[in-house]
Amino acid sequence: MSGASHQDPLKAIRDLTTWIEISESAYAGNLRFVRRLVGPEVEISAVVKANGYGHGWELIARLAADHGGGSFCVHSLEEALQLRHAGHRQDILLLGQVMRRRLPEVAEQGLTLAIFDPGSADALVATCRRLRRSVKVHLKIETGTHRQGLCDEELRAVVETLKKEPRIDIEGAYTHYANIEDTTRHDYAEHQQERFRAALRQLADLGIKPRKVHTACSAAALLFADTHYQMVRLGISQYGFWPSRETQVSYKLQQGTDRSETLQPLLTWKTRVGQVKSIAADSFIGYGCSYQVTRPSRLAILPIGYSDGYDRNLSNRGHVLIHGRRAPIRGRICMNLTMVDITDIPAVAPEDEVVLLGRQGQQEIRAEDLAQHIGTIQYEVVSRLRSSIPRFVVP
């Protein structure tokens, strides 16, 4: 379950202690922003792996279909089957490993398979022959990331294997960049582009001209028109995040700082005050007595913790928003509870709304802020949100 809900949000939220709101207007704006950059002819493939980067795969797939996403990319067969069972008939590209005994499901569900090792090619040929079913494939080319991918010497052998079975359609070829997000120097990405172009020439020599060539992740789609080809794989940017600060800087250097278009985060994570309590000066808070107050204080106890994806490393570092003001986390974040100091925020009461991630009034807590506190990236912050937290699309 993704935690997505089709209920009326206003009615359902009244009874919840924690939930996530997804802004449809922000999502639509993000896709318009990318569409202006890639042009009308380039297919936008929405990457909805990892529960839609924590946003809820079902909600995001629906929004993508409504606002210009032409296809989907997922990591696992399970994710692809979820989309099919939810009624999505668009092309779905399986980027990750599929156990060979499950290749019949790929054929039966009309999924597109990434081929990145010779063994998969052999197994797919055998499957298509046995079932007499057709499968579309995209060849993943190794250009310098050194994860999945076909090296130069493997590419010819794989193509010759796949060509033995006419039911296999080599529809696509793609690669992935190793160092395009976290730098303002892009010489390594340019090196990878040249290696990819060489692979396309090799494919042409073998009589293969893929109809869908794609190399662009979000950063490449935002920065480099020559990476767009026929399709871009839109990951983190559809959710309203710049892939990195360096990507945002590079974009501003290219486009100028006077442009009003930007990306808008979709996700707001909320909870409620569970209890308000007063404690004496010099009291300790939470496990390990890791925080001691120096004055009489008031605490709000929140019914969320690290089992919900609220990272324990935010203990004594992070803030939440209550009544439009920042309340610091005090003590260690527990599995299901978090304590915050509301001494300087008057009139806080049980069941008041609290924002853990997102905007309240004039204040905002960004995924990038949480990532900085815990020493990671915004991708991890959102993708780790507990999948069973109810999620709602709001206008």
Shape: elongated
Mean pLDDT metric: 95
By DSSP (H or I, 4+ residues per run), the number of helices equals: 13
Extract low-pLDDT stretches.
none
Q: Helicity level, as a percent range?
A: 25-40%
Beta strand %: 15-25%
Largest sheet: 8 strands, parallel
The whole-angstrom Rg is 24 Å
CATH homolog superfamily of the largest domain: Alanine racemase
Termini separation: 23 Å
Q: Structural class per helix/strand content?
A: alpha/beta
**What's the total number of strands?**
20
- Mind telling me the CATH class of the largest domain? Alpha Beta
Q: Tell me the CATH topology of the largest domain.
A: TIM Barrel
If strands are numbered along the chain, what order do they take across the biggest sheet? 8-7-6-5-4-3-2-9
CATH architecture of the largest domain: Alpha-Beta Barrel
Quick overview:
With 395 residues, the chain is an alpha/beta fold. Helices cover 32% and strands 23% of the residues.
Looking at this protein, list some descriptive labels.
single chain, 395 residues, alpha/beta, TIM Barrel, Lyase, Ornithine Decarboxylase, Chain A, domain 1, eight-stranded parallel sheet, seven-stranded mixed sheet, 32% helix, elongated
